[in-house]
Design a protein that fits this description.
Layout (H helix, E strand, L loop, with lengths): L14 H8 L9 E2 L2 E2 L2 H35 L1 H5 L8 H4 L1 H30 L2
Antiparallel strand pairs: 1-2
Amino acid sequence: MEDPTVPEKRLVLHPATAAARRHDRQRAYGSHVRGHTVDNTEVLALMRRHRRLGLLFALLQITTGISLLIVFLIWPELGRWQPIGSIPFAWIAPGPVALGSIVVSAFIHERCAVRMDDVWSKAHQ
């Protein structure tokens, strides 16, 4: 039985906090993620999937560098070829190859990670 003399408790929010909750922004505490409560084991499983994805793309970068080295070992004339004046191709190629693979890999990794987050978020609403 409620006592009629006790006033009802009300939660009063700062206008910015109320607006953030209306727009479903992420909160900074505990297991509250984007407007819904989740189990810590589920969050840790998502983090493990992200870690595996990151390691996969790191291995892709290492493989790209090693494969370029193997190409120069197998085909040494390519490494000594001088397409621009006196600078050998072995000094020119790693820059564009490595940077290009990093840019492409980062773009694909970001898309995969966002898709993984979206699937997880929709499954836990």
